[in-house]
Design a protein that fits this description.
This protein has 200 residues and is an alpha/beta fold. Helices cover 30% and strands 22% of the residues. It is globular, with a radius of gyration of 16 Å. Bound molecules: guanosine-5'-triphosphate and magnesium ion (MG).
Amino acid sequence: SQIKEVEFVKSSARAKDCPRDERPEFAILGRSNVGKSSLINALARKKEVALTSKKPGKTQLINHFLVNKSWYLVDLPGYGFAKAPDSARMDWSSFTKGYFLNRETLVAVLLLIDASIPPQKIDLDCANWLGRNNIPITLVFTKCDKMKGGKRTRPDENIKNFQELMRQNYREHPAWIMTSSVTGLGRDELLLHMSQLRNY
Ligand code: GTP
Ligand code: MG
């Protein structure tokens, strides 16, 4: 399940512009600034495969990255960027929802949740929307290096509270993984998890 090579393929403004080969893919979704692009770089063990920024709203298009010439990681624009004008938010939902509902090669969505803050309604809404549309998700908790106390490898209150809220909506709690793009926590676990889903 190791990564030998990650190459950027293309940016697409619409779902129908995405690559048309049949390779399986994983979409990386989450609030602006949650660490989507950083996660791709951590998986690739490279700094600038995907562009990151301290300012939310960096990623604006659907970006396909080809891994080991055999499957895709897809970097998506973040949602919930409070400063974006309403029109920009609408754009997000129509084009990204179009992608989710029409992408037959989508294996699962990695839904990124910031472990350094309490549960956010918008993340729960997003998980529920994906669930209602039968799109499989894996919860990827990011920024675990910023969790308070302990060795920062065990779930803290934020993670436990988020999972408790998820349990109220999901009959089966989705798979979940704790990660940090700074320390590399969860990298191998996530790669193994994706290889299992691909071969399922
Ligand atoms: P958009 O493209 O705007 O939606 O954001 P994004 O989700 O792609 O976030 P990005 O990867 O650009 O990271 C946002 C900020 O969070 C950057 O300053 C990163 O350095 C920081 N960051 C990302 N992952 C981690 C992490 O695991 N730990 C810590 N401490 N910071 C992180
Ligand atoms: Mg990004």
